Amino acid sequence: MNAAVENYLMPGGSASITALPKVSLHDHLDGGLRPHTIVELAGEIGYELPETDPAKLTTWFAEQADSGSLVHYLRTFDVTIAVMQTADNLRRVAREFVQDLADDGVIYGEVRWAPEQHLQQGLDLDQAVSAAQGGLEEGVDLVRASGRSIRVGQLITSMRQTDRSREIAELAIRHRDLGVVGFDSAGPEAGFPSSLARDAYDLLAHNFLPTTVHAGEAAGLDSIRSALFDGRALRLGHGVRLAEDITTAREDDENTYVSLGDLAQWVKDREIALELSPSSNLQTGAIEQWGDVMIDHPFDLLYQLGFRVTVNTDNRLMSATSLSRELFLLSEAFGYDLTDLEIFQINAAAAAFLPIEEREALSEAISVGFERA
């Protein structure tokens, strides 16, 4: 077990959030490495780290990521990607990733990563995907050997700034029966709307491979609109700035008027899941127009208005977090109870890139787990 995975309890109660069954939809492979693994792998390849003590390296990642800028936040990935350039290293990182998810109570996880960033030591795209899949499967086997259960799938990510979206879409389609469950687009959001990769999204749609798109994090409503209508997105990666399309006005001490714009209404009515990552959203400045502490996050507004909100970590290393910690922080800020936390997990199960029968079974497993809490 990874000692960094802590046991989080409900605020003011004894129920263990960590022990509850959970679904993780937005979690980057290169954002979830164990610090001591980075130190070991960097030593093997002679890569110079900013800190060689795992504890100090953990602090370095958190400090660098907590910048209020997505651009600065993304620079921390130079370190993690550098040690993920061989098949063996990809397998190890993926294996440990799954074990850490299971230690945090995750029973279904979608693992997103960009294979195009892992070709510096001779791997081709297909070899990289196969290596990661091998590690994921090893992790699942180790979890099962410990008497627990977890299922994972790959989300193949294209980096929107590299103009390789069509090639990466074809890669995802080739591996759809070999562990890949969907497609993602990430990287700098401003200046790179989904319309620039429309041919890739058309190809994915024609092959019935579902997509999620990073949108509404570093850019606003136009980015979300393009993700939905050019990117055919079934989920929004973050999507937090959809709250810009919601108007609230206090009528008196007891009543508040709320109005949804056309885009927000569309997302709500279609039950398009929002992959919200509270700590990350604070770190990158995605919610700066509303504030800079957890209670300022529009998560609760979106939840109370009936949007399909889900809770995610984004990058566990950079945000020094876990899914249980994110749920704890939200419960602490907004007074959520176990019923609320169960709804968040049911929302995630309903939005998972799985056949409907398997989504229903996942929801049932979540309900049973919460009943026992």
From TrEMBL:
Adenosine deaminase domain residues: 21-366
Cofactor: Zn(2+)
Cellular component annotations (GO), alphabetically ordered: cytosol
Enzyme class: hydrolase
Alphabetic keyword roster: Hydrolase, Metal-binding, Zinc
Domain of life of the native organism: Bacteria
BP GO annotations: adenosine catabolic process; hypoxanthine salvage; inosine biosynthetic process
GO terms of molecular function: adenosine deaminase activity; metal ion binding
Pfam short name (any one): A_deaminase
Family listed: Belongs to the metallo-dependent hydrolases superfamily. Adenosine and AMP deaminases family.
NCBIfam families per the UniProt record, alphabetical: PRK09358.1-2
Protein's UniProt name: adenosine deaminase
